[in-house]
Amino acid sequence: MTVVAFAEKNKAASQIASILGEGEVERITVEGLPAYEFKWKGEEWLVMGLSGHIMNYDFPEQYNKWNEVNPGVLLGVDPQKLVTRADYAAAVKNLAKRANKIVLACDYDREGENIGFEAKTLAEEVTNVPVERARFSSLSPKEVKKAFESLIDPDYNMAMAAEARQILDLKMGAAFTRFVTLSVRERARTKDILSIGPCQTPTCGFVYEREKAIRAFQAKDFWKITAIFSAESEKEEGKESEKKGEKESEKKGGKEGRDFEGTHRAGNIHDKEKAAEIFKRLKGAKEGVVAKKTVNETKTSPPNPLNTTEFLKRASKFLGISPELALEVAEQLYLAGFTSYPRTETNKYADDFDFKALVFDFARHEEYKPFAESILIAPIVPKNGEKDAHDHPPIHPIRAASRGEVSSAVNIPQAPEVYDLIVRHFLANLMPAAVFEKTHLHLLVHEEPFDSSGTVLKDSGWLEAYPFENKKDKLLPFVEEGQKVGIKKLSNTKSKTSPPKKLTEAELLTLMDKNGIGTKATAPTHIGTNKKRGYLETKGKTISILDTGFTLMEGLSLTVPILVRPEIRAKIEALIQEVEDGKKEFEAALDEGTALIKEMYAQLEANKKELTSSIAGTIKDEAALEDKKNYIGTCKACGHVLRIVQTDSGRFVGCTGYPDCRNSYPLPKAGALTVLRSKECKKGGAAVLKVGNKYNWAVGVGPCFTCDLEKECYPPETVGPCPECDGSMFLITFKDTRFLGCTKRCGYTHSVPKTGKLTLLDKTCETCGWKLFRLKEEGDSPEEEFCINRRCQEGRKYWKKPGKGAETRIKEKASISRPAASSAAKPAASSAASSAASSVTSLAASPEVTQAKRKNSKISAAGLKKSK
Predict the structure, then answer these.
(1) What is the spatial order of strands in the sheet that 673-675 belongs to?
(2) 799 and 823 in contact (C-beta within 8 Å)?
(3) How do residues 722-776 score in pLDDT, each as one tens digit?
(4) pTM for the complete prediction?
(5) Phi/psi zone of residue 850: left (φ > 0), alpha (ψ -120 to 50 degrees), beta?
């Protein structure tokens, strides 16, 4: 007789074959895939591992063209289950033809049962032999042999529950994703697919709601009154401690630990005057009195046994491992025979669980020996939870192993850490409660009440084996009721309320579990899907929503909030559970689930305009924000983004909110545009642009040189007083020349070095008071700092240096308009004037300037210089 067994994965098949075949196993290939052949109890056995799901649901081909099918139609179409792994399907049929009996040995949960039924469906196409089920929760030799010795019938309801989930998720995910994506593409250019999922979207919604609360938070001031108290002197304290039997941790001497903090009972005081009034009453206080002292002993029980959700939360919280990775590591530890099956909702051990044998195994292991021995000296009583889902026992180790052994068997860096967490949790659960002594002091200062609390660990109990939750002592000095204590410091501290903290992955898993989003097996997948879609990201232990996710959730929340909230998904999960429990027929659950989805889809259609307007507008905003070259700012009319728009007929500043918002501004017809991010228009222009190298333009106002606030916006950076009038000298730079000119336009000019990088410094010449310049010529020549004033003794030293002769053509007496200028100066003055005039002429040639001349016939040299 030949028996064929199908495991969920090759690694599990290998383990099962090794256990049943007792090492005498032959590895063969079937359709190119590995299988294992051996004899057990006089029968020929063939065991093969699948690759998870080898079949999946999809819509018929004619419904897969997005632009040709109304998304709502998909809700009324029955999807088909198709083979997705042809090689595995062929191998299953090949082996089934040889079988006299088939055993399904996949993981015993909803998805595992469904995977087994996929193999069963394929096998039944070529044979009609009996099909049975091996149910086990770990790959320990004892449990595997027990499972194959007592085979049961496959669980049809459990398999169909997974089937119902697949169909309903496909319908909702495909219809909603297509509808939102195609609708948004009608109004915004985007290739992105805006994915909507029945579990994915509410999961993202939890993070969105927290982020929204953080963004909306407004900090408020509060005041807290605290006092630093000091107990009695060291000598007196020592005597008193001996009388009262003070704990050794409090008798270590010295003045450390004698000081302690107390807080006024009013706590956070939001009224400044009230805080000041209380603090005034405390003024001058030198001592307080212990009005009441209470000491209580409290016990902290060990944690309940690990179910999947609790394991994922603790792996995230204590180890910083994502739920998706934690479940993958736990899966591999299970397949390698180190731990039990990681997908379980049960958090209580069965009455017949053999604790002693397992704890004895750990007592032989150096790292866990002290904890195991302490457990074995007394009757073993686990601290059980309340849930028995009748699926698998809680996650627990099935044998002791060193970190090196775990690393060798499981090629994932975090495997030893995860194994250690599971072991320590298992042992801690069997240990006694931790005992704490808590002390509370009620103190009075000028009749004002203060509180101070301390905690001391008296018996570590289970915390001895569980370092992840070790709590530090907060010691108080030993004092008695009625005892006076000194006051070292009184403070009235102002603080601000803090915004809500970002969610951790552990908190997100708790919210999902509480609201029925996903299952123990799928919860990490939903978080992972949101990350892959670019909606969520993790930073350390916290999880944040990205712009794309926030945009999508914002749009859905404003228009179809039922999609973001968990209520509908929880109802669908309940329907699926009813199928698994045999309380509802498969077809009835599909009908009810589809009806719920259609209700949501109707809301989506009814709110299409608002939804797409919100999402498309934000997508356009994000694209405009990323385009730094054309980004202008925020539209005052609607709050969307202003950006430079180029068309065949010209250019202008437009709003991403178009066509709902038609706010726009004209731009100059010619000249390269550069947004001056550091400039702000004092007349409320949306931004200031540099037009070519000629002038500046305020968006919504016009050219800056026509504005009466030009000098206020662009004050010239002066060098020093003009030698000819009460004006100031400033640097004028054009494309081909540069020189100093007068702010009063008296006509006096002064030469500067024509080449090199010229920087005006804050330092001044001690002789003439002009600011110094720094010059850096090209090449390796050193920087120079000097006074440029030819009428100054220090300035003349610079101009007399070798190589500066070419600069002496423009003398300090040169002038553009002064008739008394010497004949020698005229050519130079003429040259400078010609240069300036040519620049002014070129500027005046532009149409915008020509129009502006009607209002302002003169262009100030200061304006020219600063716009450059």
Answers:
(1) 673-675, 688-691, 695-698, 702-703
(2) no
(3) 999 988 998 888 778 889 998 888 889 999 988 888 888 989 999 999 999 998 8
(4) 0.69
(5) alpha
